[in-house]
Design a protein that fits this description.
This protein is of the alpha+beta class and 475 residues long. It folds into 4 domains: 111 residues, no CATH class; 74 residues, Resuscitation-promoting factor rpfb (Resuscitation-promoting factor rpfb fold), CATH 2.20.230; 79 residues, Roll (SH3 type barrels); 165 residues, Lysozyme (Orthogonal Bundle), CATH 1.10.530.10. The strands form 4 sheets. The protein has a 5-stranded antiparallel β-sheet. The longest helix is centred in the N-terminal third of the chain and has 18 residues.
Length: 475
């Protein structure tokens, strides 16, 4: 609190005292309010004598109304102020301005309000005053340059997506690559201390329009499920018929067996697919199609079905069957009629003959089964001759040839069929030889029947064994 008696007694105070007192007032909001009240009180009781305001060299008003000198004597009034009073008044003025006119002018306004606690607090927080000298120094050395330029710039292309029902869902294919365009741009660039700051575009001219990038996005859940595309191979789950149109009431085009492969041509809907079966085109329901990804063992089943698809009485026998050694083993193992296990024990011999002499091994085995009654005939057991080779109708047993093993008899008959029955004369066959073709009437079982056996239905009986052996692949 200020001392009322000494509050405005400036005669006995030096400048240092004034600074300390004003500093104390500044740091004490309550003292500031008290000081303001005393200033108002002093203003009311000031002498009525008029004194002109003192002027200083910088022509600034010193607010002489708040700091008047006392009358020296009742008789003599002088307008001259003592030097000490002038210095004291100037000091009070400077400190008062620093106190009551800070950089944040909002404080001056809030200070006079009735509720000053929040405003003063806000003022006290603003302790970091601007240092004008620092600001001037920092900006005095700044090199700010602007330049105008005309240049070509790339223009980004757009990317457009199109739904495609003939692609697996989630797959994307780029149908057109995007190409950047070109613009000619007139621009003003701003640099500060050599660093680019900003630019202003004044004009823009299109030189080359950008080419958009086109992406086809798949939507087919059927293709995605089976991991296939149009043109890929698919397989039938069960026997079915190709339709002329994509509906159940249209005409049948072809019958297709289970596991047979077809080529996927079109996908008119998620329910129907257009396929090609050995060159025959038609429609089939997608629910009856599968893929190697969805059904891994379908490829092996298809191989077998493709072999069986070519089994018929008119099939060519002067070529291999397409069967593997494991296929032969499967065919000839555990056949109930093979009581002596002759064919089971010699399945590899029939396979080797096929590979060595280019003859259908199943056909060769079927002749042996028919002629030897599954290896139970006397000629088969006594002479290792499963074919009755060399025998005549008048004396079949006596005239038939003896072999040291079943393998020798099988190979002898295989070579004879290839050289004389299954190939026309001049055909290159085994070991650099050529076929004689003496009994050639076509490379079919019926053609062999013409000169090989006197029984006209021989070919039908042999073929029935062939069918039986082939069908064991599906067992």
């Amino acid at each position: 609190m200020l001392d009322d008696k000494n509050s405005f007694n400036h005669d006995n105070r030096n400048l240092s005292d004034v600074f300390k007192e004003l500093q104390a007032i500044r740091n004490n909001p309550q003292a500031q309010q008290e000081y303001a009240k005393q200033m108002q009180k002093a203003q009311k009781h000031k002498p009525k004598t008029k004194v002109k305001p003192t002027k200083v060299k910088n022509n600034s008003n010193v607010f002489a109304s708040n700091f008047r000198t006392k009358d020296r004597t009742s008789k003599q009034k002088s307008n001259d102020l003592k030097l000490s009073h002038i210095l004291t008044g100037c000091g009070i003025l400077v400190v008062s301005m620093a106190l009551f006119f800070p950089k944040d002018l909002a404080f001056t306004e809030s200070y006079a309000s009735t509720d000053t606690s929040q405003e003063v607090e806000a003022y006290e927080l603003n302790r970091h005053r601007l240092n004008m000298q620092t600001i001037i120094s920092e900006n005095a050395g700044m090199d700010r340059v602007k330049e105008q330029a005309t240049e070509e710039r790339d223009v980004e292309f757009e990317t457009t997506y199109t739904d495609n029902a003939t692609l697996p869902k989630g797959e994307e294919v780029v149908t057109q690559e995007g190409v950047l365009g070109k613009d000619q741009v007139t621009v003003v660039k701003t640099y500060e201390n050599g660093n680019f700051v900003e630019e202003t575009i004044l004009a823009r001219t299109t030189l080359v329009q950008p080419t958009p990038k086109l992406i086809s996005r798949g939507t087919s859940e059927f293709l995605a499920k089976h991991s296939v595309h149009i043109g890929d191979t698919m397989y039938l789950v069960s026997d079915d018929k190709l339709k002329s149109e994509a509906n159940d009431t249209s005409n049948d085009v072809a019958e297709v067996k289970a596991s047979i492969d077809v080529k996927l041509l079109e996908l008119p809907s998620e329910e129907w697919a257009k396929v090609s079966f050995d060159g025959i085109e038609g429609y089939i329901k997608t629910s009856n199609l599968t893929s190697a990804t969805t059904t891994p063992n379908i490829v092996e089943k298809n191989r077998i079905q493709r072999i069986l698809l070519n089994v018929n009485i008119g099939m060519e026998l002067n070529k291999t069957s397409g069967l593997t050694l494991n296929d032969y083993k499967k065919i000839f193992t555990n056949i109930p009629n093979d009581k002596n296990k002759i064919f089971e024990n010699n399945y590899q011999v029939f396979y080797n003959m096929e590979k060595k002499y280019n003859i259908n091994g199943i056909f060769l085995a079927s002749i042996a089964i028919h002629e030897s009654a599954w290896g139970t005939s006397n000629i088969a057991n006594d002479k290792n001759n499963l074919f009755g080779y060399g025998s005549y109708d008048e004396s079949p047993y006596e005239s038939s040839m003896d072999f040291s093993s079943y393998e020798e008899g099988i190979e002898t008959v295989a070579k004879s069929l290839v050289k004389y029955y299954l190939n026309p004369a001049g055909t290159k066959i085994y070991d650099g030889e050529t076929a004689e073709g003496w009994y050639y009437n076509g490379p079919t079982v019926e053609g062999v029947n013409t000169r090989y056996a006197s029984d006209s239905s021989w070919h039908e009986k042999v073929y029935s064994y062939m069918e039986m052996l082939y069908n064991r692949l599906n067992s």
